[in-house]
Amino acid sequence: MPESQQNEQVSLKIIEAQKELTKVKLEDITLVDAAMGSGHVLVYAFDVFLQLYESEGYSKRDATENIIQYNLYGFDIDTRAFQLSYFALSMKAREYNRRFLTLELSPNVFDIPEYTDLSVQDFEDLITTDQQSSDITRLLNAFHDGNSYGSLIHFTDPIDFLEIESIIDTKPGEHQLSFESIELEEKKHKLKEIITVSKLLCRKYTVGVMNPPYMGSGKMNDVLSKYVKRHFTAGKADLFAAFMERLRMFVSANGYYAMITQHAWMFLSSFEKLRQSLTQDTLINMAHLGTRAFEEIGGEVVQSTAFVLKKQNLTEYVGTYERLIDFNSQDKKETAYLAAVRDQTVDYLYRTNQANFKKIPGSPIAYWASKNLIHDFEVGKRMENIVVPKVGLQTGDNKIFLRFWYEVGNQNICYSANTISESTLSGKRWFPYNKGGSYRKWFGNYDYVVNWQDNGKMIKEFTWENGNARSVVRNPRFYFQESITWSDITSGDFSARYRTPGSIFDVVGKSAFKLEKQTDLLSLLGLLNAKVTNYIFKILNPTIHLQTGNFANFPVINSKISVYKQVQVAIEITQNDWNSFEESWDFIRHPLLSHIADDKQTEVGGRLENAFAIWKTEAQERFDQLKANEEELNRIFIDLYGLNDELTPEVEDKEVSVRRADEERDIKSLLSYFIGLVFGRYSLDTLGLAYAGGEWNTDKYQKFVPNKDNLLLLNDDRYFDDDRDIMNRFRTFLAVTFGEEHVQENMDYIAHVIGKKADNSEQAIRKYFVDDFFKDHKKGYQKRPIYWEFNSGKQNGLKALMYLHRYDEGELAMMRTDYMYPLQSRYEERIEKLQQWVQDESVTKTKKQLEKKLKHVTQQLKELKQYDPIVRHVADQRINLDLDDGVLVNYEKLQDGNKILSKL
Question: Whole-angstrom Cα distance, residue 866 to residue 584?
């Protein structure tokens, strides 16, 4: 990549540092790979050196000897990797010098030794000075764990290797050899190996290169962790960062070092000291590769960057940066890079002064930041001076302490606590819990509740076996306060939401709270959901984890234009959208039924299709209004931050956080609402939840009365003409809501929308309930279903739904006596009729259809009979379920290893 144009001052410094280069011999140019692996980089470097030597007039044979002897060096802790590197370089040398293998030359690559059986006492008879004793002790201590430290080994104080080597050169006496003297010679040989490697580890090299190993600090063993923390404080967060520090140590003044690493060090606060250390030197070039830089590594987690640094402080140096993160394959990145080499006007090549990085809080390597954006950081007020960003509770085990809100009894949830004292006084067990969630702006992701009974007593007392606390209760004084919240993981664009008072927040549902009473959270939310903010956060930290430190460093520029009303409308729109579906605890009534009793009833005209059309229009208007709102906010803040040349206000449809109408999804959700009505979870006479645990109140149900029993059969044909049959109940539901005279046309419409093939509409809808309802229910309720499906097997001999919150110990006994036995009788009657019809039928085609039906019902009867003793076994246990235990625990308890329920 051609170097960028430098100012006169920088050019003079470069010339001054390089004026001695004309006197440097090729033999004096050294390259080290501190984690060589199988030697790929060294083999490539061999070819580069060969070209240099040939340009100086050397023969390939003579050049080969020099390269192996003087130019290339490598270290690793893996013996097999060392062997491969040694072999690869030897074969490379043999390629150009046929006599190489007969020469007394070995590649300068080394397996870092580890000797745990050596101590300074082994050499006490040979040591003559305190300095020798001290130096040997330091060497042996370092290589006691050589396989852990590898080339990270270095010595802060110099070691007098000549003095120690004099010990090794001491010859044994002329007297007869003994076992002790032989053992001493072996130990001297080991010490010699340590000295050889140590001298090279202490050496300075012209060029350092490496692809370092990776290991987070939490995964290091105690030995390595202590060593890294002691010697590499700036890079202690990850092993690769420690090697970045170490490679810099290897390189001589005015030398170069180059690496390919994960890009986290460029942005995360845990690497800020490392960035400050490295930018004492000069960033010459960087190819920011991003994801999918290597075909062998897929996914979005591994994001790479390759870079070259010069060990010279040139604060005004203009480096070259190739932003290749938007090219989504190895080949495309390579093609784009080479195109930038040929044409430096491409829009993904940046040239910037690295001094600009320090103008941004945290000093991220934000090479693509424009002058206007850097100015925003200089004049803006830090976010941390307006709100207080915090991380919250870490329970220690979410399976124990968290539930989706719909799993537990609603009477045990307190939604209205504003303080910890109010939560304690409520006597409730469960409280709303902010756990982040998926991309969504303005309002939403109210999914979880946490067990905070008695001020979190159980969580606070939750310990490991050794008595250490497993939970971490952070920032409790902010619990239950209103906030702005965002999710820890932001693989896409940033999104922030308003969180009403009443919630506890956790470590991934990061939150910001009012610094002062007059703090305007809503206007701030408008800024946070604007394009400007996403753009700036990608500067501060483009990794998938947005930290509170990045949030705190955001520059807020005061505006005279109020955006309070736009934000208030955006929250209202998204809140209405969130509450339109039953997964919200503030769900009131299904949107397709919202007009059957108001002034639009005439417009509906008893037709469900008309109700959907009205809902579709409303949803689209809501969508369009929110989109227009967001584009207006974008215009305001893009202009305020001076980023008109970099951003446009337009919002893509996929970025709008409300749902348009979806005919199939919304009709199926109506069928789910109907199931809720059958079981009494909802009522046509009561807004919101009618029953989700606690005391049953029959007064709530007038228009549509729930089933007396907590059971609803899902038969694939009509066997009952009462409330046990799902389609009898569904017809009643349609008659009550849209009118008796419109039942059939509404059935036809529903059957058309859900798309199940059948002889008629009733059979199509029935087929959906039998085949697909529970699958859809599981998906909608995130594998924590509240309607459970009894399932006898593949023949659907018995399928039935039960509402978890109405379950009692006699449920299964009731199911056997009132449902399974009568169903068995119906099967027997049907079989008898089919047998007669088959016997009487003369038309071959019809006869085969009847025979097929007969076989199916016979199999269903057989399956039902086989299922009965399994159910009886569980029924006899009278299993008690505790809603507080959650769906997973209770589901497994009722299955009792017998699989009487459909799989979760």
Answer: 40
Give Cβ neighbours of residue 858 (< 8 Å, ≥ 6 apart). Answer: 831
Share of the chain above pLDDT 70, in %: 97
Between 271-285, 380-394, 545-559, the lowest mean confidence (pLDDT) is in 545-559
Strand pairing partners for 683?
686
Maximum CA extent, the chain:
120
Render pLDDT for 370-386 as a digit per residue (tens, 0 to 9): 999 999 999 999 999 99
| 472 Cβ neighbours under 8 A, 6+ residues apart | 393, 394, 396
CA–CA distance, 787 with 774 (Å, rounded to integer): 8
Nearest to 446 by CA among 526, 484, 400, 500: 500
Beta strands in 335-406, from DSSP E residues, in sequence order:
349-353, 381-382, 387-390, 402-404
Inter-CA distances, 730 with 28, 224, 720, Å: 88, 66, 13
Task: Give whole-number Cα distances, 175 to 166, 172, 184, 742, in Å.
Answer: 21, 8, 15, 116
Dihedral angle computed from the Cα positions of residues 250, 252, 256 and 258, in that order, rounded to the nearest 10 degrees: 10
Q: Average pLDDT of the chain?
A: 92
Query: Three-state SS for 486?
Result: strand
Asked whether the predicted pLDDT for residue 111 surpasses 90, the reply is yes
Residue type, 567: V
Tokens for 743, please give them: 């039942």
Residue whose C-alpha is closest to residue 821's, from 855, 752, 867: 867
Do 258 and 286 touch, CB atoms closer than 8 A? no
Residues in the chain: 904
Cβ contact 784:730 at 8 Å: no
Question: What φ, ψ does residue 885 adopt, rounded to 5°?
Answer: -75, -15
Question: Which tens digit of pLDDT belongs to each residue from 658-701?
Answer: 999 999 999 999 999 999 999 999 999 999 999 999 999 999 99
